[in-house]
Write a structure and sequence with these properties.
This protein is of the alpha+beta class. The protein has a single domain, classed as 3-Layer(aba) Sandwich (Trna Endonuclease, Chain: A, domain 1), CATH 3.40.1350. It is built from 1 helix and 7 strands. The strands form 2 sheets. Strands 1-2-3-5-6 form a 5-stranded mixed beta sheet, covered by helices on one side. A hairpin with a 4-residue loop joins β5 and β6. It is globular, with a radius of gyration of 13 Å. It starts with a helix and ends in a 15-residue tail after the last strand.
């Protein structure tokens, strides 16, 4: 599978799971948008950038760089939703404007963020 197809699948997975959590999801018509979707919940509107990691390993690394090879500014992206295939779910991570990469393990530091759509 090419990376464009993988990213598209992750975006649709995110949309379905968010709707199952009773969160409204809107996708921009413009492919060049700095975010992949907007969520609308009791916590307000949030701009989401969706990433995917297809590694079959339990410990994975996700990189956060925009088209300019820089970190995503806070004003462009509120949260990252990282689909990790081997974990079969999303890690919801707040953008601090400085993220370059994260190492994620099932029982690690970000385990509280696993499928935690309440953050949105």
């Amino acid at each position: 599978m090419d990376s464009n197809l993988i990213g598209c699948i992750a975006e649709y997975k995110f949309g379905v799971v968010a709707m199952e959590e009773e969160i409204n999801v809107s996708f921009p018509l413009l492919d060049a948008s700095p975010y992949d979707c907007i969520t609308d919940s009791k916590n307000g509107l949030k701009k989401i950038q969706i990433k995917s990691v297809l590694s079959d390993k339990d410990v994975v690394r996700c990189f956060f760089k925009n088209k300019n090879k820089k970190s995503y500014p806070i004003e462009s992206v509120d949260y990252f939703a990282i689909w990790v295939k081997s974990h079969n779910g999303f890690y919801i991570i707040k953008n601090n404007g400085k993220l370059h990469s994260l190492v994620i393990r099932k029982d690690g530091k970000y385990s509280k963020n696993f499928n935690n759509f309440a953050l949105l």
